[in-house]
Automatic annotation (TrEMBL), chain A:
Name of the protein this chain belongs to: ABC transporter ATP-binding protein
Originating organism: Marinomonas colpomeniae
Domain spans labelled ABC transporter: 4-238
A molecular function (GO) term: ATP binding
InterPro entries, per the entry: AAA+_ATPase, ABC_SmlMolc_Importer, ABC_transporter-like_ATP-bd, ABC_transporter-like_CS, P-loop_NTPase
Pfam family, one: ABC_tran
Entry keyword set: ATP-binding, Nucleotide-binding, Transport
Length: 347, 575
């Protein structure tokens, strides 16, 4: 097992810069998600890790070995990485068993050893009884599990996932997430997982790299990204909540209830302002008192276990909160904001 | 993996495996040898003796009255033929693609058949249909008096057959466009209360106009380069077009003969290339305009018009396909031309003679099968790495190379044959072996000519493969050659066989190239039919032609069996 280091990676296609100066250090055995909207360069990063694309500048190191730099390139065939594709990429002319066993066959591993390891891999994904089937005879979830078995059969150090759940329906996704978690626990492999779905990344990864337009926005644990996002864009991208304009305050700090109400009161649209993130669970309905603001219910949507309530402040800004009971639209209430997180403005 | 196992390579540009590098070099040499060299050789010969003096070969060609007569005749027959092709092709295209007519696959198959039947056989069968010696007219007692002219020996006869032969080209161009028309365009027009006729005239025809023009351009250049039909119908009547002029000049002698012929060839080649460029430009323009719609093809309900329309199609097919083929069969079964077919005169002696006595028939058959088989096999083997490498090239480079490969197929066979004569008239350097006068020169010409025929289905199958399939094999550690054999080949195999079969089908009947390159002992089937007819032995020629048509229909049916496993459009006569 070795550490995977991306050192100041640049990539451009036909003069257009897709990845700009990316630095990441991925510890052995870590589950890392690359998260970002489409076109943020996350798939390109994965393809450079796999060796399909050379880097334009910078270095990719795996332990002491330089996998890729502007002068050197270890080809994909020599990397011993596994990969799970969005389209599964199962070879339609080979049975499940042959698909899983192909990497071993290429490495010229003897057939009894090969059979044992295929069996083992199929066990992990619970597909033992499907060994003889062709990929066309499997469901989407089963196909993705075959792809998973194929990626782990060579016991690679690093397994790359390229939006593996994008083609599956909602119900299957939750199940496959569970499979991935078990897979990671059992193999202990380093996993780099590309997705555009923040809830998928939050629930699976140890650490998440959020990317935007080829640049790293923030790199941290899901908890850190949720509680202390760097800027307004990220605050809107991850989790639910409202970004409020308030009177000026230094970024990257918690704001307590008293200060927050003060900041809101002092804010007027002519001033220089700051943005703070208020999570829905940090808003409480209170009787009128010292620490309370007047709001109007703008909209109330049933979500099953609770209602989403959209509130409007007196200056027109919107706030999202939850409530157990439905609320009448246009009714007035008092709320207290318990805490907030101050944000950098988006560059 | 331990560090020592990892081989780091220095990259120059995009990552290039050494296996890939060798493949690429091979590819470059191959394309250069098969596509570029013949065309260049022709150009050099035509321009080599260009001087300002009036006696240079090219000037002589341009001064000769025969050149201009042949050029005019070529334009007249090809133009008239194109008109016929457009009428037939559009009629069949609209009816079989847009309506709920029954038995669509059979109509399409029958309509495409004339394209695959070699032109000399088409010409022969029409000759058997008309004229005073026609066995079928004699059988029916309708034959005109002896000595009355054969109506097919005329410019209009040539144009009619050129039209029938190239109508499928117009049909294909139109059909491709019609299939791409989305249903919602039609539904929107119907919601606007347009009648089916209005929808057709206001929506469908304007959207197909450029496809029809492109198909017509293709039909025109194909007619311009056709040798079999004007040779069989024009030479006896003394009606000369450009390809037959070249053929006749080759028979003549003279110091500048080759240079003059090369000059003539350049004229055809330039005309044809200009036509091809026009066609490609039009087709591309017509394709872009409809991108982004959901592709669900249009279908009109014919209701009470269905039966009359089916009868009309059937009678047209009867006239252009069934009747001439029937005449051909009848001719092969009579003892001599001019005799009616009755139970008493019915004889299989022509078939018997062809198989048992005529040594040349057996030889020609063997030669053609051998040439077709080896060409198909070699081209299949070549197409795999070639297609693979082409797919890895950037779009623009790929387009350039693909059109280079297309050139020898696009320029008329007669021009290509001249190029090969120029290339191989002298013994090969160093090894001092002369290919001229052997089967070898025909074989090389076939390779050059049909490379694109074999490559096209392969390329289209490869471009439909998910690139992730190969990347997954790459991650599994498989190197390019192993990926090619284990992954790409099995997944594109049907396209290979289709490409190979198409090459076999076309080359076994080929006349134009072999007409100039054959020599005694190296006859092909095409040459044999042509020579037998020229020497007046139409009965024997018909017998061979019947076998050839059966072979063509059989191979086409075989290809149809592959159709469900092939990408759309690989087999022209199949959905």
């Amino acid at each position: 097992m070795a550490r995977l280091v991306l050192d100041n990676i640049h990539k451009s296609f036909h003069g257009e810069s897709v990845v700009k100066g990316l630095n990441l250090t991925i510890e052995p055995g870590e589950f890392v998600a690359l998260l970002g909207p489409s076109g943020c360069g996350k798939s390109t990063i994965l393809r450079m890790l796999a060796g399909f694309e050379p880097v334009s500048d910078g270095k990719i190191l795996h332990g002491d070995i330089c996998l890729s730099s502007s002068k050197q390139h270890v080809s994909t065939e020599d990397r011993n990485f596994g990969m799970v594709f969005q389209s599964y990429a199962l070879w339609p002319h080979m049975s499940v068993k042959d698909n899983v066993g192909y990497p071993l066959k290429v490495q010229k591993i003897k057939s009894d050893e090969r059979d044992r390891r295929i069996q083992e891999a199929l066990e992990i994904v619970q597909l033992e009884e499907y060994a003889g089937r062709l990929p066309a005879q499997l469901s989407g979830g089963q196909r993705q599990r075959v792809a998973l078995a194929r990626s782990l059969v060579t016991e690679p150090d690093v397994v790359l996932f390229d939006e593996p759940l994008a083609n599956l329906d909602r119900h299957l996704r939750a199940k496959m997430e569970e499979t991935f978690r078990a897979f990671h626990k059992r193999t202990g492999a380093t996993i780099v997982y590309v997705t555009h779905d923040q809830s998928e990344a939050m629930s699976l990864a140890d650490r998440i790299a959020v990317l935007k337009k080829g640049e790293l926005v923030q790199w941290g644990t899901p908890q850190a990204l949720y509680a202390t996002p760097k800027n307004t864009w990220l605050a809107n991208f991850i989790g639910r909540g409202s970004v409020l304009k308030v009177s000026e305050i230094a970024p990257q700090q918690y704001v307590n209830s008293t200060d927050l109400h003060d900041l809101i009161e002092r804010y007027s649209s002519e001033q220089v302002f700051s943005s703070v993130l208020v999570r829905p669970q940090d808003i409480n309905f209170v009787p009128i008192g010292d620490l309370s603001i007047v709001v109007t219910v703008n909209n109330c949507i049933f979500r099953g276990e609770r209602y989403d309530v959209e509130l409007t402040l007196e200056d027109g800004q919107k706030l999202l909160t939850y409530n157990d009971m439905p609320m009448t639209v246009n009714s007035q209430h008092h709320i207290r904001l318990e805490q907030a997180w101050s944000l950098e403005s988006e560059s | 993996m331990t560090p020592s196992l990892i081989k780091a390579r220095f990259v120059d540009g995009p990552s290039m495996d050494s296996q890939l590098r060798w493949l690429s070099i091979g590819l470059f040499v191959l394309i250069a040898a098969l596509s570029v060299v013949p065309s260049l050789r022709l150009l050099v010969e035509a321009l080599s003796q260009v001087t300002l003096s009036a006696s240079s070969p090219l000037a002589e060609v341009l001064r000769s009255e025969r050149t201009w007569i042949a050029l005019g005749n070529s334009f007249y027959t090809s133009g008239l033929g194109t008109l016929i092709a457009v009428l037939l092709g559009c009629g069949f295209g609209f009816v079989t693609t847009l309506t709920n007519i029954r038995g669509r696959a059979i109509w399409v198959f029958c309509f495409m058949l004339p394209m695959m039947i070699p032109p000399q056989v088409t010409a022969l069968s029409w000759l058997q249909l008309f004229g005073p010696a026609s066995p079928i007219l004699n059988t029916l007692g309708l034959a005109p008096a002896l000595g009355s002219p054969q109506p097919m020996y005329s410019a209009e006869g040539i144009a009619l057959l050129l039209g029938i032969q190239s109508a499928p080209l117009v049909y294909l161009a139109l059909r491709t466009q019609l299939i791409a028309l989305p249903q919602d365009l039609l539904e929107a027009a119907q919601l606007a209360k347009a009648s089916p006729f209005r929808v057709w005239i206001d929506i469908i025809v304007p959207l197909c106009r450029s496809a029809i023009v492109a198909g017509a351009a293709l039909a025109f250049v194909s007619s311009l380069g056709n040798f079999g039909i004007p040779a069989m119908l024009g030479i006896p009547a003394g009606y000369i077009v450009l390809p037959t002029l070249i053929y006749q000049q080759m028979a003549g002698f003279g110091n500048d003969m080759l240079s003059q012929v090369a000059g003539l060839s350049m004229i055809i080649a330039l005309l044809v290339l200009a036509g091809m460029l026009l066609q490609q430009w039009l087709q591309q323009r017509s394709r872009y305009s409809l991108l982004g719609h959901t592709a669900q093809s249009i279908s009109f309900r014919l209701q009470r018009w269905r039966l009359p329309l089916e009868l009309l199609l059937a009678s047209i097919l009867c006239f252009i396909l069934v009747a001439p083929l029937f005449a051909l069969i009848v001719s092969s079964l009579v003892p001599a031309l001019g005799m009616p077919l009755t139970l008493d005169t019915l004889t299989f002696s022509a078939f018997y003679e062809m198989i048992s006595r005529q040594g040349v028939t057996k030889r020609a058959f063997e030669n053609s099968v051998f040439l077709a088989f080896v060409s198909a096999f070699v081209l299949m083997v070549v197409s795999l790495p070639l297609g693979y490498l082409l797919m890895r090239l950037p779009m623009r480079t790929r387009a350039v190379i693909a059109s280079l490969i297309e050139v020898p197929y696009a320029i008329p066979g007669i021009v290509l044959a001249i190029a090969f004569i120029l290339l191989f008239a002298k013994p090969l350097p160093f090894i001092e072996v002369s290919l001229y006068g052997t089967l070898g020169i025909i074989f090389l010409a076939y390779l050059s000519c049909f490379l694109s025929v074999c490559l096209k289905p392969v390329l289209s199958a490869m471009s439909q493969l998910d690139p992730a399939l190969e990347e997954a094999a790459q991650l599994a550690g498989a190197r390019p050659l192993k990926r090619l054999v284990d992954i790409i080949l099995p997944l594109t195999a049907p396209a290979f066989f289709a490409g190979g079969l198409l090459v076999f089908l076309i080359s076994i009947n080929e006349l134009t190239v072999s007409a100039l390159l054959w020599s005694a002992g190296n006859e092909t089937l095409g040459v044999l039919i042509f020579n037998l007819d020229e020497s007046g032995d139409s009965v024997l020629a018909s017998a061979i032609a019947v076998l050839v048509v059966m072979l063509v229909a059989g191979l086409m049916s075989l290809l149809s069996l592959f159709a469900p496993r092939l990408p759309k459009g690989v087999i022209p006569w199949h959905d």
